[in-house]
């Protein structure tokens, strides 16, 4: 793209919209004014502008500037340079930070040392700086590409973002196919914003997805893990799930789950996911915490059941069959979306506890109740019971025992079948080692 092909900005003044600098968080305003005082350009940009114009509560406010990250770094004592794919500056205010990004230029031809692309056209590294117009057009969607000047209360719009905001469109800037090839994650982002804002993906932006969704297979598993969290830890998780499946994107995040959904188990697996996601939505709306371990445990339960059943049919007993199934499914999943170690323990606990919850025996339930992951595992059991994958009477039993005092609990335990007899488990004495 040559300079004269760059758009000029439509500038919307305070008479055109209700966004006001004085209503923005002090931290963001301070970053903008420090940069300006040092002679640089600086604007609020991206999601913060989009959401404020829509009268939503933005998650954060990012700043765009013509200062390089290193130049900006010198202006803020409490700041840190981060990133490789995109070099950025974080300016800290207590535990929070404002992200400062330098205007980026258009990607030059392949082979340029600061720009790398792979065979499918995916941009691997992009640290070429540019001006504001260039920065506007390298962003993903028109509604994410508006700059706000908090002193003049002006919105600078190079890509008709305001129009799309009014009409409710998520629309890629530029040629959609090229933009998806540069970064296939934009397909997931399109869904995320459309659902979050109750917008439509513009037909031109949606059209190439069925042809290009396979490109998601090349995205590093760690980046997809991050995207999964953003997609499903939201108050609109159920709709996001439907839309991702509709556009054939879900299969790249959870391939085994998608296969389970296509089998005769499909209907309960689907219901389980819906129940669990609406559970997540409810918790978020109540300000409660949600953990990736729970969401992942639930997405993978369908596939685990399939593997478990196979192993049991081959003669394995329940405990090893479930364990083997878990490790197989987890292993395969990690190839699609990485799962940090700290969450894997939580997931396997939730799964393993299901066997105990399905078969309360002897005095074991007392230990189970004390397990740090009991609450999550119990919630999981209740969801399973709702969709016919567990016995509702067992779920009710666990609900009841939590409400009992100690005497009541003892009574409930006394009515249980006895624990398994430990027959034949005594070890043979070790043979004497005569060799030494
Ligand atoms: P959210 O509310 O989810 O934070 P956001 O719009 O702030 O939404 P971020 O992922 O925080 O989204 O990214 C900040 C901005 O950076 C976006 O608004 C967009 O302009 C740009 N951006 C982010 N990811 C991409 C991408 N993959 N391709 C092009 N531009 C991107
Ligand atoms: Mg953001």
Taking all residues together, what is the mean pLDDT?
A: 91
Portion in strands: 5-15%
Tell me the strand order in the biggest sheet. Answer: 1-10-9-2-3-6-5-4
Predict the CATH topology of the largest domain: Beta Polymerase, domain 2
- Overall body shape: elongated
**Class by alpha and beta content:** alpha+beta
Cofactors and ligands: adenosine-5'-triphosphate, magnesium ion
Please give a structural write-up:
This protein has 436 residues and is α+β, with helices and mostly antiparallel strands. Helix content is 51%, strand content 11%. The model is unreliable at 109-113 (pLDDT under 50). The protein is built from 21 helices and 12 strands. The strands form 3 sheets. An 8-stranded mixed sheet has the order 1-10-9-2-3-6-5-4, sandwiched between helices. Strands 7-8 form a two-stranded antiparallel sheet. The relative contact order is 0.07. It has helices at 26-37, 47-53, 69-75, 132-138, 161-167, 176-182, 185-197, 203-206, 209-212, 221-232, 237-246, 250-253, 255-261, 266-285, 292-313, 318-336, 341-358, 364-370, 374-386, 392-403, 406-414; strands at 10-12, 42-45, 62-65, 79-82, 88-93, 96-102, 115-117, 123-126, 146-149, 154-157, 169-170, 200-201. The radius of gyration is 27 Å and the shape is elongated. It has 2 domains: 11-219, 2-Layer Sandwich (Beta Polymerase, domain 2); 221-415, cca-adding enzyme, domain 2 (Orthogonal Bundle), CATH 1.10.3090. Bound molecules: adenosine-5'-triphosphate and magnesium ion. Adenosine-5'-triphosphate binds at residues 46-47, 59, 62, 139-140, 144-145, 183, 185-186.
